[in-house]
Amino acid sequence: MNKKLPPLNNLNTFSVAAKHLSFSKAAEELSITQAAVSQQIRLLEQRLGLDLFHRLHRQLKLTEQGIALQNPVNVALNGISNALEKLNKNSKKSILTISILPSLAIKWLIPRLSDFNQKHPDIDIHINAHLGLSDFKHDDLSISFGHQHHANLVAKFLMDEDMFLVVSPKLLTGKYNFNKPNDLQHHTLIHDSVDCVFEAYGIFIEPSWDDFSKLLKVDIKNNKSLTLSQSHLVLQAAIAGQGVAIARSILVSDDLEAGQLVKIYKNKVLKSPGYHLVYPKSHGSNKNIQKFEQWILSACH
């Protein structure tokens, strides 16, 4: 490297000042003072032993030497900027941003994610947990509840889901222990206040307590209720013995296996549309998406 090259910061200040032919406008663009711009230009001129600007009354003009230097400096600075931008884009390829429903993230994905992290330590996962549909401006892919066909999206089916009633084992020891459908009338019903967002898109109508009332042929309009705003909170309340919850088989599987919840009225089951892995067709060549797709399909089957 040529040790006689002036500092990069001075060259950048020269480039901006030459573009505007104004130290005050250069200072504004660089977010420094006009005096600092003037000082950097003076240091550059001293370093080169050349005058780069004619300092006229309220006006700057480039000297012949300044004109000769302007384009090569601009080309060099643009080359550095482009190289840094490319490096930054390449570094971002190690990040995979996943859009997912909060309850699915908490109850299913996060407990299993360590396996993916062990297999792919080079990929950093960012989880964007929210109720809305992804527009894929900031998400690489989505794990979606249901799916509506779109020509520009790839959708891979992940897993089916049943919906049924669950309680804490604590509630099985009382007088009304769910041996009969009418026992349900003596228990608190836990409600999820957030209807599935995909109802708004015509993908699926969320099963409700009215559906289970019809399925069990029992009147529950006088039951006490407890209302929470997320499916995982509903399940946590059920684990605490607060009442009966409508559970999704995917979200509740670990709690059932651990014995924290038990299924009641086992033959009374409703279906949901299940879950899909969704991403834009334009993302299909993304190696991180391909690795995650391979992993999650294996985890689901």
Describe this structure as you would to a colleague.
A hairpin with a 2-residue loop joins β1 and β2 (59-62). Strands 3, 4, 5, 6, 7, 8, 9, 10 and 11 form a nine-stranded mixed beta sheet that branches. The protein has a two-stranded antiparallel sheet with strand order 1-2. It has nine helices and eleven strands. The protein folds into two domains: 8-92, Arc Repressor Mutant, subunit A, CATH 1.10.10.10; 96-300, D-Maltodextrin-Binding Protein, domain 2. Mean pLDDT is 87; it is low at 196-203. The protein is elongated and about 100 Å long. The chain has helices at residues 8-20, 23-30, 34-48, 64-92, 102-119, 209-216, 231-239, 249-257, 287-300; strands spanning 53-56, 59-62, 95-100, 124-129, 141-145, 153-167, 189-192, 225-228, 244-248, 262-264, 270-280. It is α/β, with parallel strands linked by helices. It is 41% helix and 22% strand. One of its GO terms (molecular function) is DNA-binding transcription factor activity. Residues 6-63 form the HTH lysR-type domain.
Quick overview of this protein structure:
The protein is α/β, with parallel strands linked by helices and 301 residues long. Helices cover 41% and strands 22% of the residues. Strands 3, 4, 5, 6, 7, 8, 9, 10 and 11 form a nine-stranded mixed β-sheet that branches.
